[in-house]
Amino acid sequence: MLNLRNNSMFGALPSTSQNSSLIMLDFSENHFNGSVPEWIRDKHSRLKVLSLRSNNFDGHIPHKICDLQYLQNLDLAHDNISGTIPKCFSNLTAMANRSNQSNYIYEWVSTRTTLFYLSALLVLKGQEDEYSATLGLVTSMDLSTNSLTGEIPNEIGSLIELRSLNLSTNLLAGNIPNEIGNMELMESLDLSVNRLNGEIPPSISNLNFLNHFNVSYNNLTGQIPISTQLQSFENFSYMGNHLCGPPLTKSCNTKGIPTDVANNGSSSEGSKVNWLYVA
């Protein structure tokens, strides 16, 4: 493992870090810049933890990251990365294949005097914690606070081993894909502060382990799906949208439209345009 977290290093990633095959690579909280290098896949094909968080990386997410079949934790948050989310993320085997037992990090290092597990600092559910012996049980992807555009690819729903997905504070548009409902082990899902529209897909009610959920400050409309989990979150998880139904106090009409929007619309039979959606 190579951990240079929380220093004052700058420039492009050092080429010397290509010289050995690593399981964990953590360059987070520095001042590195340039694009995310494609050699990460070529030189470190057995990577399980990759964190480039809180640097100045730009450019697109290289598609070669999709070939890291052992990758369990990917953190590219708080950089300047643009472009779209690669559809090939569905190839991340350790995040997608529940039957693949090799995705668990039970590696440990033994010396004459001590025995220790790999450990990593991960930001999950909005807070940073250290994981060591339980690191193999955590699968996460954090792409938050970048400039990612386009839609959330349907293929991301195939990552059924993911426990945490954070795509907040980007420029993502389009609908929330219905396939997210396939990620039934998900505990934390944050899609806030984007440009997502349409309704919250009913399939999200399948996520019975959710204990952190945020879709605030998008352009979402309609009724919040009914489930044990979705009605348990505070109003701030939904604010900044045009949603209605519990847990919000704003009720919906029979068409799933907030009643205040319905009342402000035109009552003439000849006009069915909802000017809120047009705006």
- Helicity level, as a percent range? under 10%
The overall average pLDDT, rounded, is: 83
Tally of helical runs: 4
Look at the helices and sheets and give the structural class: mainly beta
- Can you count the beta strands? 21
State the end-to-end distance. Answer: 51 Å
Strand fraction: 15-25%
Strand arrangement, major sheet: 1-3-5-7-13-15-17-19
Radius of gyration based on Cα positions? 21 Å
Low-pLDDT ranges:
100-116, 265-272
Specify the biggest β-sheet: 8 strands, parallel
Keywords: Glycoprotein, Membrane, Receptor, Signal, Transmembrane, Transmembrane helix
Pfam families: LRR_1
Subcellular location: Membrane
Organism: Gossypium hirsutum (Upland cotton)
Structural notes for this entry:
The chain is mostly beta strands. 7% of the residues lie in helices and 24% in strands. The strands form 6 sheets. An 8-stranded parallel β-sheet has the order 1-3-5-7-13-15-17-19, with no helix packed on it. Strand 11 and strand 12 form a beta hairpin. It is elongated, with a radius of gyration of 21 Å.
Task: Output the keywords.
4 helices, single chain, 279 residues, Leu-rich_rpt, 24% strand, transmembrane, four-stranded parallel β-sheet, eight-stranded parallel β-sheet, mainly beta
